[in-house]
Amino acid sequence: MILVLRALGVGDLATAAPALRALRAAHPDRELVLAAPGWLAPLVELVGGGVDRLVPTDGLGRPGSALRAPRVAVNLHGRGPESHRMLAGTRPGRLLAYASPEAGHRDGPDWRADEHEVDRWCRLLDWYGIPADRADLDLLRPAPGDVPTGVTVLHPGSKVPAKRWPPGRFAALARELAARGHRVVLTGSPDERATAQRIAAGAGLPADAVLAGRTDLGRLAALVAYARVVVSGDTGVAHLATGYRTPSVVLFGPVSPARWGPPPGRARHRALWAGGQGWPRWDGVGSHPTLAAIGVDEVVAAVDEVERAVRVSGAVAA
Questions:
Q1: Are the CB atoms for 41 and 63 separated by under 8 Å?
Q2: In the beta sheet, which residues pair with residue 33?
Q3: Which of 165, 182, 199 is nearest to 247 (CA)?
């Protein structure tokens, strides 16, 4: 058994796809087990990395009996020491992880705080002689089912308040895009539904445009896979758009897109960030200044750019 720990969220799993596929290729005859939150199961199936089994794992507590004695344990969760100790507790034949003297693990490469999340795990495996392709980010496309297709998805929420673009600007953006012929829908968690409803009301959108709290992870993935364009903050939906090559505009702050942004060289994905301008002290309330500095007109222009890139690539292919 090859045990992989990645007990995090949607974007974390999507950015680990190249590493998971590399492990599958390196161990084609071994059972590949992923320790991750159970609610991610629909996305695990869409990663297409040959994961044989998902063991529901929330947090870094004591490992269950289902995780005992793997041939190889791989830490795609963090740099330790907690995650290292959790995997060491399974008594693996070998642990592949970043060096963590505090956890008693001196093997592995050194951690780089400013590294892109995709590159981080590809570099870890490469250090152990397992090549991984950082561009191998595509997700399997689900059947559309009953989700609307060809819509423009605005995802205003984030678990981190500092990463939320002001709702009033999302309303202005939705109003402008709707006037340009976009069929706009708003997604988010059940806790974000009220905010999405206020944005829809401010933009003059119909009530059925609010899908926040009404889509499970599988339906959200399908919605993004068949969308016209996606606009979101630095959150999991942005990584779904990358995985499906759906045109996207991602609003960054305070974290730089150099760490979590879409892959370079793809004109259909645009990252907007106003960092590096010497922002004044922030009181920790509301959107981070690097995010609040992004204007509606700039986002509308970026939407035009990514749609133009799709048209150009289609014309070249034809």
A1: no
A2: 3, 53
A3: 182
